[in-house]
Write a structure and sequence with these properties.
The protein has 290 residues and is an alpha/beta fold. It is built from ten helices and eleven strands. Helix 6 links the parallel strand 10 and strand 11.
């Protein structure tokens, strides 16, 4: 069985987790909306992930909405000791499957209680505030009001740790003046390298960086160089892309998602893949490493 412990560990706040986790977004239906085609398969993927040593799962109650959290509860509740479930708030889904900001105190409070109910817990391990000031990525905008709502809910005992998603360095600095920031979740992968300096700054502060779309998201990574390196190593391009992220910085935690047991096993096997220096140099050139 794959030994994901080889990828090492890092902390989310005061909790230490293995660096290779699992993202539950793909357990919902097409477009992350509605139920999955095969709910039993979704349950099986979650159970195998945990059985193979995954100890942190990324989710949100706006996946579905409600679908992935309900499947997580069905598959894993009562949750094993040591499992950290990271969720997100700050958005809601429209009836047309649109993604809409949900930043008011009422919306955020309702979202926390929805997550608590659907996951079947009394307190949420980690809650990321998803920022939506721009449809294309992080953008400056005020976060004091919504983050203060979450900090108040944290003081009430409903949230244990708080993170930010789709955030800028300035927003993280602002957030740290309000509450502890356990993690930052932004888009980052082999070809999308805008956060290179940000990752280093977070590492220096002991803050986890969690790339979403580590394999490219809805448009999987495509690169002749990536394919050539993978062929030379007897691995898949996606395994190489994950292994590169694990080498990129010690504070990176990975949450590749899949609804397939086969793909889950391939993703977890990336923990054991060793990249020679020449392969790393070739891969770094894909994103124009600085």
């Amino acid at each position: 069985m794959t030994d994901i412990a080889q990828a090492g560990t890092f902390q989310i706040g005061d909790r230490t987790v293995r660096r290779l986790g699992y993202g539950a977004m793909q357990l919902a239906g097409p477009g992350v909306f509605g139920p999955p085609k095969d709910r039993a398969a979704a349950v099986a993927v979650l159970r195998e992930a945990v059985a193979r040593g995954v100890d942190h799962i990324d989710t949100s109650d706006f996946y579905g909405p409600h679908v992935t959290n309900q499947i997580i509860r069905e598959a894993l509740h009562p949750y094993p000791d040591g499992l950290v479930i990271v969720t997100k708030v700050g958005a809601r889904r429209g009836p047309d499957a649109s993604w809409n900001p949900a930043f008011s105190a009422e919306e955020l409070t309702r979202a926390i209680h929805d997550n608590l109910r659907n996951l079947g817990v009394d307190a949420l391990d980690v809650v990321n505030l998803r920022l939506m000031f721009d449809a294309h990525g992080p953008a400056e905008g005020p976060i004091e009001a919504p983050l203060t709502v979450l900090a108040d809910l944290q003081r009430q005992g409903l949230i244990r740790r708080i993170g930010l998603s789709n955030a800028t360095p300035r927003q993280v600095a602002e957030g740290r003046r309000i509450t502890g920031i356990a993690c930052v979740q932004n888009q980052y992968n082999l070809a999308h390298r805008g956060d290179d300096a940000f990752i280093a700054d977070l590492a220096a502060s002991g803050i986890a960086y969690v790339p979403f779309f580590p394999l490219g998201g809805f448009s999987p990574l495509q690169s002749d160089t990536l394919s050539a390196v993978a062929a030379g190593l007897g691995a898949t391009p996606m395994q190489v892309a994950l292994a590169w992220l694990l080498r990129r910085s010690h504070n990176i935690l990975l949450i590749p998602g899949t609804s397939s047991l086969g793909h889950l096993r391939e993703n977890l096997a990336a923990a054991e893949l060793r990249l020679p220096e020449e392969a790393l140099a070739a891969l770094d050139r894909i994103g124009g490493a600085q």
